[in-house]
Amino acid sequence: MKIEKIETFLVPPRWLFCRVETSDGVVGWGEPVVEGRAEVVRAAIDVLAEYLIGQDPLQIERHWQVLTKGGFYRGGPVLSSAVAGLDHALWDIAGKVYGAPVAALLGGRVRDRVRVYAWVGGDEPSSIGDAVAEQVAAGMTAVKMNASGQIQTSPSVAEVNDIVTRLAAAREVLGDSRDVAIDLHGRVGVAGARRILHAVEGLQPMFVEEPVLPEQMAHLSSVVETSTIPVALGERLYHRAEFMAPLNAGVAVVQPDVSHAGGISELRRIAVLADAHGAMLAPHCPLGPISLAASLQVSFATPNFLIQEQSRGIHYNVSSDLTSYVVDPAPFTWVNGHAEWNPLPGLGITVDEAAVRAADKIGHSWRNPVWTHEDGSFAEW
Ligand SMILES: [Mg+2]
């Protein structure tokens, strides 16, 4: 069996899918995308396809080595995301050939269901209480929200108080038996992050995400040590080596994205590395159905798993949602806030190829907003 054809599809709301076809007619799907840079990843796939065409799709790790290292220059979001999508597709093919879910090929599932959380609020969170109540009514046991909208690098008292007020509103609805996490999105500086962690400590969020930007990792330990709140990060890290510094700084939760950090192969390795540091895996996944299906395979097979992100109803999904491109939405139907075990082979989903091909004709040019502070200078989004 040989890889014969590799295609990419730019589909709304902001995704890129890839389809890998073999000489035996087995097809694997992947989701290689950097949000806002999908066209660039598409070009990277075209270059990597030059190597993959004609290869045996079942030698996944061998190809992973060549795809990540064979071009001499390595790493970064674009290349690592392109490799990730191809890696999903090769695992999907392997599962279909061997007649097993990818989780089974990773050693088998270690749990019967995977806890997922829902997003509440958008980039400018408001009326959090109602949004949380809606998720509780839907059976969710955990939610995540942005801590703030646009915020000063050194936040004002009012800005810090707003974060506390919104988190308190969520906690009031959730009670003590459900969880809420907040995402700082690297929007404030290191000192600002320490102040915010202090201010929200009594509300006991499940974790605080991205308190500092990846380039400020050297100062992460001061943030970790400032409170008892678990610190989480990793959506902008792309390789296991990049997780060494935050794990040594004491992060409690790592959040690699299966569409950015080298795919199923590398997510699995990052999880193992985290386990050796006593940290847990909470895969980042605000993306589409193939990405989530790939992520769930790792979550089912990972002992030190905490919770899975998913994008059903997320604020980015305006024109299409998680179920728009799959034949059967059952794998993304949450039961009491959990994804149920899915015994289907490969990634466990059937992509609606006709819908994908039609959507690609429309395409998209999604870009994240570019924010500015009141004085006109650049603000982190
Ligand atoms: Mg985040």
UniProtKB/TrEMBL annotation:
Ranges where the Mandelate racemase/muconate lactonizing enzyme C-terminal domain occurs: 125-230
Gene Ontology BP terms: amino acid catabolic process
Keyword match Lyase: yes
Keywords on record: Lyase
One GO MF term attached to the UniProt entry: galactonate dehydratase activity
Top-tier EC class: lyase
E.C. number(s) listed in UniProt: 4.2.1.6
NCBIfam families listed in its UniProt record: PRK14017.1 (NF010624)
PANTHER family the UniProt entry points to: D-GALACTONATE DEHYDRATASE, D-GALACTONATE DEHYDRATASE-RELATED
Name this polypeptide is given: Galactonate dehydratase
Organism: Kribbella jiaozuonensis
Protein's gene: dgoD
